[in-house]
Write a structure and sequence with these properties.
Elements: H1 2-37, H2 40-50, H3 79-102, H4 122-125, E1 135-141, H5 146-157, E2 161-165, H6 171-184, E3 190-193, H7 201-206, H8 209-214, E4 217-224, H9 237-260, E5 267-272, H10 280-296, H11 308-334, E6 338-344, H12 358-370, H13 377-389, E7 401-403, E8 408-410, H14 414-417, H15 419-429
Parallel strand pairs: 1-2, 1-4, 2-3, 4-5, 5-6, 6-7
Antiparallel strand pairs: 7-8
Helix pairs in contact: 5-13, 9-11, 10-11, 10-15, 11-15
Length: 431
């Protein structure tokens, strides 16, 4: 009997331990679900978007179906956030006025390395940066939708070969995009590279331009179109996508590019920034606030004071200052044969605001359309591709700052000139 009692006791204890373990597992799962529930909608929408492409080349925002999860965070209606959005609107109007005063169409003022030939002759424009064995190629980040997709398609139509990096699980989407490129230009060369996770430094280091060259691809153009606007403070997705990923990949690719760059060849890195980095809010907060943002890599949401508009502003300040710093550095190391160009495309109708409340998204689109400032990704891509093809002064220490589809050349901002800000972003990119 004692043996039976002991066995029963042990069994009861075992069952008790199992119940405790299951309870702990459920509690852990609940915490994980709560933590992930806030960005679940973004994940599902992004996955669907990457897997769907149409023949026309737009980003398929409309008509995806009722199953798309829409995130409507109350944080966007907070007074401090709305005030920054109003500041952005004022900044946009000021930037447009500056661009119009700067004069005309940047493409008309373009000087070409290949002489006075036809500006539409894409092959001629790129003759100086390739040889007979390879295709002059462009690598575009953020190619899956919006401005990035429109830019990549326009580069394809202008005669560039395309390098398409894809992340884990994204091969089918990349292959579908490659098919769309070949429909746009029959003899288009598209090279899929991946899986590439930009959060893993070893993946970036393993990315080899030399391997691409052996396959007939000569990357001389890098265009950073990837962007994010996160309403989740603890995620740091805005800082990660808009700045850190961009800087890490640039450092790795340009370092390798310089090793093989021929004396007569030129290369260019185009950073897609935003007019928001020049808003008055950022100016008033000052460099100390920006330094704090850089040091934390994410805004603090624990106290309920997270401002996603400020987070996005700082990310664009960072990439603008980084472009200016790298331009000056490459001028010294390559004599201007590798250039950085900062492009402000203006107000573009993309999925960037997908985490905003629906009413606020509608207000943005309607207001932008009424002011004549809202543009399609295809129209905005004109300015980005013009920045790729346009010739700038190779001896200038000032990073070219281009606005809008017509390529109006603006002066550098206070953030691009500030030496302390430059040091901060360069140091952060090397961490």
């Amino acid at each position: 009997m004692r043996s039976d009692d002991a066995s029963g006791t042990l069994a009861l204890r075992a069952r008790g331990r199992e119940r405790v373990a299951r309870a702990r597992e459920r509690a852990t799962s609940a915490r994980v679900r709560r933590r992930g529930a806030r960005d679940e909608g973004w994940r599902r929408e992004t996955t669907r978007e990457e897997e769907r492409f149409d023949d026309a080349g737009d980003d398929d925002d409309e008509g995806e179906g009722d199953d798309v999860t829409t995130w409507t965070p109350t944080v966007m209606w907070r007074a401090r956030v709305v005030l920054v959005l109003i500041d952005w609107t004022v900044t946009l109007v000021r930037t447009v006025v500056r661009a119009r005063r700067a004069g005309g169409d940047g493409r008309r003022r373009r000087r070409r390395r290949d002489g006075d030939g036809d500006g539409d002759d894409a092959a001629t424009r790129r003759a100086a940066s390739r040889d007979d064995a390879v295709d002059a190629s462009a690598l575009v980040t953020g190619w899956s939708s919006g401005l990035g997709r429109a830019t990549a398609m326009r580069l394809v139509r202008e005669g560039y070969a395309l390098v398409v990096p894809y992340r884990l699980g994204g091969f089918d989407a990349a292959a579908a995009f490659a098919s769309a490129c070949r429909r746009a230009r029959a003899n288009c060369r598209v090279e899929l590279v991946g899986p590439l996770c930009l959060e893993r430094q070893k993946d970036i280091d393993a990315f080899s331009l030399r391997a691409l060259r052996r396959r007939g691809m000569d990357v001389r153009v890098i265009v950073h179109c990837a962007a994010a606007f996160s309403t989740l403070g603890e995620s740091s997705r805005t800082a990660t996508v808009n700045f850190h990923h961009c800087a890490r990949l640039t450092e790795a690719l340009v370092r390798e590019m310089m090793m093989d760059l021929k004396e007569e060849a030129h290369a260019r890195v185009v950073f897609v920034g935003s007019f928001v980095h020049q808003c008055e809010t950022a100016r008033r907060l000052g460099v100390d606030a920006f330094e704090e943002w850089v040091s934390t890599s994410a805004a603090d949401a624990s106290n309920g004071r997270y401002n996603p508009a400020i987070d996005y502003t700082w990310s664009k300040v960072a990439i603008s200052a980084y472009a200016a710093a790298k331009h000056e550095e490459w001028l010294k190391t390559t004599g201007g044969r590798v250039q950085a160009v900062l492009v402000d495309p203006g107000l573009v109708d993309t999925r960037l605001t997908r985490e905003w409340p629906t009413a606020l998204q509608t207000l943005l689109r309607v207001g932008g359309a009424c002011l004549g400032l809202m543009q399609t990704p295809e129209n905005a891509a004109r300015g980005v591709v013009d920045a790729v093809n346009r010739t700038f002064d190779e001896s200038s220490t000032t990073c070219p700052h281009v606005y809008g589809p017509n390529g109006a050349l603006l002066g550098d901002s206070m953030w691009m000139r500030d030496a302390r800000v430059r040091r901060l972003v360069v140091a952060s990119s090397n961490e």
